[in-house]
Amino acid sequence: MKRTNPGQDGKEREKEMKYILMMNGTKANFAEYAKWSKQDMEASVAFMRAFSKQLKDEGVFVAAEGLGWPDQAKHVRADEDGTPITDGVFPESKEFLAGYWIVDVESPGQVYQVAARASAAPGPGGKPGNMPIEVRQVLGGHSDLGL
Q1: Where are the chain's structural domains?
Q2: Exposure pattern of 54-63 as b/e (b: 16+ CB <10 Å)?
Q3: What is the pLDDT of residues 50-100, one digit of tens each?
């Protein structure tokens, strides 16, 4: 959502309040997800789709993506000549990013409410999973960085 704030010249400027909501899980969590029944997995996917649609209907949705399994993860960095060097998979990693939403809301309180709704996604047997959702503000430009 766009909010206006006066700029240095007194003219109104649009200001965004974007946040990323990240679903993190441990390797043990991912191993458990792989054991879910087909019905439980379908219920979880249906929840995620419906949740994203609700965010769109509320006008706060920016983006959302689920990510591949941790055993597909690679770290990439540039060699001295710019050639990509890949490394991974990292069995010692404790947590992995499972997916995320980016929302544009009016306040931190609003984003916490959205995150709580995401946390309530159904787990096995339809019980709320209560997955922790990490919430961080998306810094969109130089002014957000203090530059």
Answers
A1: 17-137
A2: ebeeeebbbe
A3: 999 999 999 999 999 988 877 777 888 899 999 998 887 665 667 788 899
User: Residue 21: exposed, middle, or buried by beta-carbon count in 10 A (0-12, 13-18, 19+)?
Assistant: buried
- Phi and psi at 130, nearest 5°, equal 50, 40
Q: What is the number of alpha carbons within 13 Å of residue 19 lying toward its C-beta?
A: 19
For domain 17-137, give the CATH number. 3.30.70.1060
pLDDT at 142 over 60: no
Identify whether the C-beta of residue 129 lies closer than 8 Å to the C-beta of residue 123.
yes
Could you give the maximum distance between any two Cα atoms of the chain, in Å? 59
Count of CB atoms within 10 A of residue 103's CB? 25
Measured CA to CA in angstroms, residue 10 lies from 4, 49, 140, 144, 145 at distances of 11, 42, 21, 19, 21
Please tell me the least confidently modeled range out of 23-32, 36-45, 95-104.
23-32
